[in-house]
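Narrative summary of target 7.
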Amino acid sequence: MINIATDLRTKVSHPAPSAESILPVIDDIIESYSDERGALIPVLQSVQNLLGYLPEEALKHISLKLDIPFSEVSGVVTFYSYFSTVPRGEYIIRVCLGTACYVRGGKEVLSAFRDYLGINVGETTENKLYSLEIGRCFGACGLAPVVMVNDDVHQRVRPSRIKELLKAYQGENNE
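Modeled conformation, tokenized:
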């Protein structure tokens, strides 16, 4: 059912549509989960897939339609790092700082990304291409330090190789 949001997102041009303009689509998403217990998280995932993030107006609408207190909806969104209430870049870079990655240089890798992209953790580049986040464990401790770019896992990442790693996501004409 998440395909509703994914399919629509591919049909709209960038940037993603505003929450107000797609309230009927959000209503369709909610309706598709109306018979399921625990619909909140799948609804939030679908709306985030559609908009790229979860603006407050969308959260209020979901709260109202699912008859769940706004504080509970907001609590779920802030608890899970998957969800974002601010627009994110096309590529979400997550640097693992779990124990193995930290010990094997994850902190230096994170610093190299911050320096190269000119953003801090939780921020997005001006061109909306990259967002930088921290992860705690990707289950690949033997390959530390690990970086995920969206769903792509990069192993044994070195600070000196950050520029090379990002070239695959920049296209041929960008530096």
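Helices lie at 3-11, 23-32, 40-51, 56-66, 70-79, 99-103, 106-117, 162-170.
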